[in-house]
Specification:
With 118 residues, the protein is mostly beta strands. The chain contains no helices and 11 strands. Strands 2, 4, 5, 6, 9, 10 and 11 form a 7-stranded mixed β-sheet that branches. A 4-stranded antiparallel β-sheet has the order 1-3-8-7, with no helix packed on it. The N and C termini lie far apart (40 Å). The mean pLDDT is 95.
Length: 118
């Protein structure tokens, strides 16, 4: 019902910046929450940031507060993740996902690799 396509990943040196984009298509009227997750090798997938399409509430993981910023463009059905002051610990595959109120994240993008070198 919902298709997600991420873009913007790549290789960057420590201290650099990168902006990820996630475009949603399909039945986007069913989306209440969009979020960014990441998963590094040997680690569990974790929520990086989430934003409610309806209410505008935003939540960040403690590890990225002050460095990352999530934003949305509802008219374009797109969510962004601006990543600043990147460090090697940010290296991971980043995924966007969507959820409806009262439900778990159920639609996922294919992921985009972010690699931060020291």
């Amino acid at each position: 019902q919902v298709q997600l396509v991420e873009s913007g990943g790549g290789l960057v040196q420590a201290g650099g910046s990168l902006r990820l984009s996630c475009a949603a298509s399909g039945r986007t009227e069913t989306i209440d929450l969009m979020g960014w997750f990441r998963q590094a090798p040997g680690k569990e997938r974790e929520l990086v940031a989430g934003i409610y399409s309806t209410f505008g509430n935003i939540d960040y993981a403690d590890s990225v507060k002050g460095r990352f910023a999530i934003s949305r463009d509802n008219a374009k059905n797109t969510v962004y993740l601006q990543m600043n002051s990147l460090n090697p610990e940010d290296t991971a595959v980043y995924y966007c996902a969507t959820a409806r109120l009262g439900r778990q994240y159920e639609y996922w993008g294919q992921g985009t690799q972010v690699t931060v070198s020291s």
